Amino acid sequence: MVRQRIAGLGELPDKTPVPKTVGTKALVVVRDGKTVYVCDGVCPHGRWLLSLGTYENGKLRCKGHGAVYDLATGQGFLNGYPLQIKVYKSEVVGEEVYVEI
Q: Which residues fall in a coiled-coil region (predicted)?
């Protein structure tokens, strides 16, 4: 795993999914107060960008078909069908956000 800066806190509006790329990997970053979540940026169900979705209470809803993902675990569901996205360890140091890829 490689630790890399992904954003400054000022680049991350609270409770708003933000698209980011590390190398060729599409990610989505969500800041909820002092907690920052980083996960895969594409929904495995319909290939929609998760940054187009909505965030509420630790969950990210894909705009495409409404799949819902828990950003702490990556576990998701759509109409009872289980889905999974990869979540990445993030760390806030001062005003910078780092992710382990």
A: none
Contacts of 27 (CB under 8 A, 6+ apart): 6, 19, 20, 21, 38, 39, 40, 41, 88, 99
The model's pLDDT over 68-101, given as tens digits with 9 standing for 90+, comes to 999 999 999 999 999 999 999 999 999 999 999 9
Q: pLDDT (tens digit, 9 = 90+) per residue, 27-50?
A: 999 999 999 999 999 999 888 999
Instruction: Give the long-range contacts of residues 17-24, CB within 8 A, separation 24 or more.
Output: 17/50, 17/51, 17/52, 17/53, 17/54, 17/55, 17/60, 18/51, 19/49, 19/51, 22/99, 22/101, 23/101
Residues 3-89: name the CATH superfamily. Rieske [2Fe-2S] iron-sulphur domain (2.102.10.10)
Cα–Cα distance between 82 and 41 in angstroms, integer? 18
